[in-house]
Amino acid sequence: MDRHSQHPDERSSLVHDAQPVEHTPSTLKRVGRAIRGHKVELVTDAHQSPEENRLHREKVYAWLQGLRVPFLLASGVAYVWMHSVLLSAILFAISIPLPWIAVVIANGVGERRDPRQPAVYKPAIAREYNEFLLQQQQQQALGRGDSDTIIDHDHDEEQTP
């Protein structure tokens, strides 16, 4: 029977007869995190990988270098057609430091590594990769069958004791 279709007196008796809520382990964990102040790292707080960082710096470099030419053209247009020396000088002055700024940003280090994170070195992966490359080179050398290779061997008949 639906609880909304019950008589008001019956609903009040159901409220008083309710059993206490059992705390499940997940509920207790949630309460514990709230008390301890568990900090969850958000995706927006995550650091960029070094590759992503380098690609971002390359894009910024390209944009800043690309903006220099339009500023120089706008400076010339302002001087020739608008006869505005002040506007031309301002646009030209903006275009002067753009290459320097672009190079400084492109040569930037990027985000610093968090010292609390462990530095992980995995020599086994590098060793396996080097072995794989060596096997590929050996297979290519065998499959190629160099025609320049001469194999000499002694015949038993030609040798005299």
From TrEMBL:
Q: Can you tell me where the transmembrane regions are? A: 60-81, 87-109
Regions of biased composition (Basic and acidic residues) lie at 1-14, 145-161
Which Pfam families has this protein been placed in?
A: DUF3099
Annotated region described as Disordered, given as residue ranges: 1-27, 139-161
Q: Keywords in UniProt for this one?
A: Membrane, Transmembrane, Transmembrane helix
Instruction: Write the protein's name.
Output: DUF3099 domain-containing protein
Organism of provenance: Corynebacterium gerontici
